TrEMBL record:
SUPFAM superfamilies: Dimeric alpha+beta barrel (SSF54909)
Catalytic activity, EC: 5.3.3.4
Protein name per UniProt: Muconolactone Delta-isomerase
Gene field: catC
Catalytic activity, reaction form: (S)-muconolactone = (4,5-dihydro-5-oxofuran-2-yl)-acetate
Gene3D superfamilies recorded: Dimeric alpha+beta barrel
Isomerase found in the keyword field: yes
Length: 96
């Protein structure tokens, strides 16, 4: 199942910089592992914002929930999810 996910990150201004850097480092490691594994299909920065648009390819809504809540930055994110299905006019298959 494909999902379009928008994540807006809001780290508390009072968070110590070392803690923020460690969270970002562990988030990056996990995000890159999930991209290599194929579950995190696209990751795009929204220009000018500490936010991203991502496409996830996972087994189920429960799997998406488990993945998103495992992200180190999850407690500091606002997340919007749009489930995707095939458009009848699309010339691509869902693997493209
Ligand atoms: O920077 C972000 O958009 C938040 C998050 C998503 C992937 C990652 O490495 O950090």
């Amino acid at each position: 199942m494909l999902f379009h996910v928008r994540m807006d990150v809001n780290l508390p201004p009072a968070m110590p910089p070392e803690q923020a850097e460690e969270l970002k480092r562990t988030e990056r490691e996990l995000a890159q592992r999930l991209q290599h594994e194929g579950q995190w299909r696209h990751l795009w920065r929204i220009a000018g914002q500490y936010a991203n648009v991502s496409i996830f390819d996972v087994e189920s809504v429960d799997a998406l929930h488990t993945l998103l809540t495992s992200l180190p930055l999850f407690p500091y994110m606002q997340i919007q999810i749009m489930p995707l299905c095939r458009h009848p006019s699309s010339v691509r298959d869902s693997d493209a």
